[in-house]
Structures
1.
Amino acid sequence: MSSVGKNTSTFSEVFCIVCPLGCRIGVEQRSDDLILQGGCPRGQEYARQEVTSPCRVVTTTVRILGGEIPRLPVRTSAPFPKERIFELMEFLRALEVIAPVRRGEVLVENLLGTGVHLVATRTIRRLGKGEEGSAGA
Ligand code: SF4
């Protein structure tokens, strides 16, 4: 996003990533208003959020105990506030999940009070007696 200062407003451009067309949306920020130019309604909503409160879907892994692999792939159920992603990663670093887990299962509701949930993106079965999980980070 680039910015060019004007007297009482700032002009910037947001590259929309909502669909493969990748439109550029002009955003003029005035003291009490936001004027959007270009793109479709979905893209304009994305641009508005990107300028006022940027969010990202977070994908990562967390520790899983008793599973066939030691890390469980997870993602947030919706875009998460960008300025709180570091806090989220600290939370996830301390999280331990117990196998078995099914793909799509909600592991943590309302992450850090944001209303966004943590969802498993892979099914991990529980190891039986005598079975060993694969090593890894
Ligand atoms: S503005 Fe609309 S059409 Fe353009 S990339 Fe975004 S979602 Fe796609």
2.
Amino acid sequence: MKTLVVFDFDHTIVDENSDTWVIRCTPDQKLPDWLEKSYQRGRWTEYMGRVLTYIGDQSVRPEHMRAVMESIPFTDGMTELLTFISENKKHIDCIIISDSNTLFIDWALQASGLKSAVDDVFSNPANIDARGYVSLRCFHAHACKECPVNLCKRRVLRDFTENRAKDGLRYERICYIGDGGNDFCPVKELTEGDIAMPRKGFTLEKLLRKGISEGSNELRAKIMPWTSAKEILQELRALIE
Ligand SMILES: [Mg+2]
Ligand SMILES: [Zn+2]
């Protein structure tokens, strides 16, 4: 039976937020105040749509944006971890669920040469339109009250494992690797035998601590905080060997 590894992207696979990293491709390397102030809580994807339109208006070419995204740094040990996963596809399936977008993730993964580690990417769909602007859409609509309007990662994870189960594939365990507030909802989908891997010092770890201290019965997975992805690699190696 296989292990399913689920990754968040920003501050997990890469050590930055791709949506703020992209601002480096603008002529001033910053956004105007009026644009920054237009963000409304829970509506990040709409805001990013405006940011990408602004970037297009500055005559930034998509090739330049791509080069900037290819320079985004990976988190410590992540290259080694993704290499290990790509060499052990017989035992490991691997997906990314991210509130960034498909284009940024694809560019960063292609540049790393480790795209083969990843079976599927679930993120806001993005493409380059006829004007050379990046256009962005919301991933889906959902009924979860806890998550941003465009993405409930728990729903994505559940749909994914249910679809696999229909094909007769059940996972021995799920390892969920993330850092952010929107990774808390999917961690509640995990059960005994699964492992939640929150990045040490980040929001998800704090939410898990709080949930456990309050005696939440939704947190059933084992919790393994990490600083370097090399620690995840060690754990994964021990699990599949
Ligand atoms: Mg993140
Ligand atoms: Zn949710």
